[in-house]
Amino acid sequence: MTPQPVTILLAEDDDGHAQLVQRNLERAGLLNGLLRVRDGQELLDCLETRGGSHEQTLDEALVVLLDINMPRVDGVEALRRIKANPATHRIPVIMLTTTDDPREIDRCYELGCNVYVTKPVAYEEFIDAIRRLGLFLQIVQRPRNGQS
Amino acid sequence: MKPRRITILRKGLLVLALPLIYQAIFIGVLLKRQNDLSDAQHWAMHTKDVIEKTEYVFRVLLETQSDLRGFVLTGNERFPEDISRDEKILAAEFPALKAMIKDNPKQEERFQRVLNSAQARLDYQHKIAQTMRTEGRDRAQEEVKDLKGRELTGALRTALEDFRVAEEKLDAARLETLRNSMTVQDWLLAGGLILNVGIGALAAMMFSREIASRIEVVTQNTRRIADGKTLPPLVRGSDEIRDLDEQFHSLADHLKGARLREHVYQEALERRAAELTRANRDLEQKNEEIEIFVYSVSHDLRSPLVNLQGFGRELGMAREELQKLLHGKLSAPERDRALQLAEGEMTESIRFIQTAVTRLSNIIDALLRLSRAGRVEYHPRMVDLKPIIERIVAAMRGTITARGAEVAVQDLPQVWGDPTAIEQIFANLIGNAVNYLDPQRSGRVEIGSAVREVDGMEKPLTFFVRDNGLGIPEKYVSKVFAIFQRLHGDVATGEGVGLALVRRVVERHGGQVWVESREGVGSTFFLAFPGDAQHSPLPVVAPRKERINVSPSHP
Residue A15 class from Cβ within 10 Å (0-12 exposed, 13-18 middle, 19+ buried)? Predict the structure, then answer.
């Protein structure tokens, strides 16, 4: 069974971080399908226009990489809304943020995030985290319709 | 000289003695009257005795007269015997009667006349008896028939009658006296009784006035002391009750002092408790702020650090690759790659690094500003806001014009505070208002002061900065004053420290800052300051020439 190509939706307000994530995901072999938005609102809008409210869109494999500190709608709120919406709640969400506050991590897991990755300041660790994320994303199987 | 003390004992004795003395006098008077009465009775009896005796004597005398007649008529010797027996009786009765009336000279005189008449009559009878014996019955009978006997009897009768009438008059007078005496005694008894009741009532009144009512006052005073009320003036007098009241008054003064001290302590305690509560609340708030601060710092400092590290490393990698390429002979694609590295990736990395460094530097500057805002020494005075706000608006003129906005400034009251800090506050709020205007409509920023007196209550000085800008979504309203919270990160640049700084400065002035906002309509930031120096927590320090200059921050 060949893994389905996934589209990665990256919500990140910091251009530099977005660039680093993108470069290293490319290095890790995930060369296509990265879409970047600048805040939570944009992410939700994007999911909406992609037909997140309709079942048919779930054909397309989708993973969300979500930063927490963003203007307008922040990552935690975006996570809450994704998981509260029946049309989008099955989309895997990976929190990717600089914060390692345990309360924040707990909160995200409570809201239903699938993975929580702290952006390490040390570059090697950061790259490593992204690489492992890339490997992880390669094997992500989007559940098919009616298969949950 | 010390006035003689009238003690309760003396008063009590007086109250008791008054009726007793009266009663003693009354009984004395009564006894005297009784005595007089019995005297009067005695004398009335005496008069009756005298009259009785007089009548008896007269009867005996008349008997001697009829015995004499009998003797003259019959010659029977029984009659002279009777006469001599009667004469003996008379001889005994006359002195007795005389003794009985010895107290009354007039009666004595009259009685003497009676005596004389009786003696004359007796002598006459003796003479007839003598004649009877010596000259015979006929001669005696003649003598009896003589008028002389009748005369003598008439004289005796007259004298006796005279005496008797006088004595009866005396009897009537004495009876009258006796009746009067008895009436007087009746009145005396009745009057005495009424007087006795009156004096009893008087004594009771005296007791009530002098003792009972004053004791009642003192008793009430003890209640007043218990209730913590003020005592009336001391009771009059100089007795033990007065002493007692004086003691109670001094006790009340002591208690008042103690209560006052207690009140002072209580107030101090309450004030201290309130201070502690406030301090505690402040500490809790500060603690929360610090937590948010640490969280924000860790996040916001990390973010550029990730970029620094990341792009530094990217730069290194690109440099290595470039170096490798440049070491060999460059083929065309290799040359293209080298150019791409230098112009593309490396340039980009350098740009990100520069941005990150600038951001870090800005964050650190902002942190320093905030830290300084908490420590800088203030020089409070009455500050005129008009020139300050004009200066701020003038400095922002460029931005305001660029946005096509209008800034209206009302007349503003003076405020007690540090001029530089006040300028910092308004610069931040006006800056925010201008920066976050809605580009869709013509912007308007208004600066004014709100009503100071509400429902007769003196409210603190309240200012506002109102805009018709983007507004704040409801869920962010509570967060806007926290550090590093940036809502419209895309609209204007900044570190999210401006409002945190404003709050810090306002709170140091003993004031409050809050916001009312509706997304898409606009925001109004309110500032409440203590009205004057008395209510301000800022210490009054002498103004100095040298000032620590805190540059106003613009978010």
Answer: middle
Please list every residue in chain A whose beta carbon sits closer than 8 Å to the beta carbon of residue B314: 20, 23
Q: Which residues contact B271 (CB under 8 A, 6 or more apart)?
A: none
DSSP state of A4: P
Are the C-beta atoms of A18 and A12 separated by less than 8 Å?
yes
Q: Which residues contact A112 (CB under 8 A, 6 or more apart)?
A: A79, A83, A89, A93
Q: How far is CA A139 from CA A58, A91, A146, B157, B161, in A?
A: 17, 15, 20, 184, 179
Those of residues 76-95 in A touching chain B at CB distance below 8 A are none
A91 to chain B nearest CA, in Å?
Answer: 26
Output the tens digit of pLDDT for each of chain B's 555 residues.
455 677 778 877 877 887 788 888 888 888 887 887 788 788 878 888 888 888 888 888 888 888 888 888 887 888 888 888 888 888 888 888 888 888 888 888 888 888 888 888 888 888 888 888 888 888 888 877 777 777 888 888 888 888 888 888 888 887 887 788 788 878 888 888 888 888 888 888 888 887 888 888 888 888 888 887 888 888 888 888 888 888 888 888 888 888 889 999 999 999 999 999 988 988 888 788 777 777 777 777 788 888 888 888 888 888 888 888 888 787 888 888 888 888 888 888 888 888 888 888 888 887 777 777 777 788 888 888 888 888 888 888 888 888 888 888 888 888 888 888 888 889 988 988 888 888 888 888 888 887 666 565 666 678 888 888 888 888 777 777 876 665 555 555 566 678 888 888 888 888 888 888 888 888 889 888 887 666 777 766 554 444 444 444 444
> B464 has which bridge partners?
B448, B526
Closest approach of B547 to chain A, Cα-based (Å): 38
Query: Any chain B CB within 8 A of the CB of A27?
Result: no
Per DSSP, what are the bridge partners of residue A9?
A35, A64
> Alpha-carbon distance B58 to B6, whole Å?
74
**Count of CB pairs separated by less than 8 Å, A with B:** 68
Instruction: Say if B485 is an interface residue toward chain A (CB within 8 Å).
Output: no
For residues B507 and B275, give the distance between their C-alpha atoms in angstroms, rounded to a whole number.
Answer: 16
**Whether A13 contacts A38, CB under 8 Å:** yes
Contact B451, B458 (CB under 8 A): no
CA distances from B144 to A32, B38, B120, B154, B390 (A): 205, 49, 15, 14, 172
The secondary structure of residue B210, as a DSSP letter, is I
**Residue A131 contacts B, CB cutoff 8 Å:** no
Query: Chain B window 296-335: which residues touch A at a Cβ cutoff of 8 Å?
Result: 298-300, 302-307, 309-314
Please report residues of A whose CB lies closer than 8 A to that of B298. Answer: 98-101
- CA–CA separation, B38 vs B265, rounded Å? 86
CB-CB contact of A137 with A114 (8 Å): no
Q: Which residues pair with B446 in a beta bridge?
A: B408, B466
Maximum alpha-carbon separation in chain A: 42
ipTM of predicted complex: 0.73
Strand, helix or coil at B12? helix
Residue B146: phi and psi, rounded to 5, are: -55, 150
Classify residue B475 as exposed, middle or buried by CB count within 10 Å of its CB (0-12, 13-18, 19+). exposed
Rounded CA separation B417/B383 (Å): 7
pTM metric for this prediction? 0.48
A53 and chain B: CB distance < 8 Å anywhere?
Answer: no
Burial of B423 (0-12, 13-18, 19+ CB in 10 A): buried
Q: Which of B101, B122, B114 is nearest to B157 (CA)?
A: B114
Beta bridge partners of B461: B529
Beta pairing, strands B406-409 & B444-449: parallel
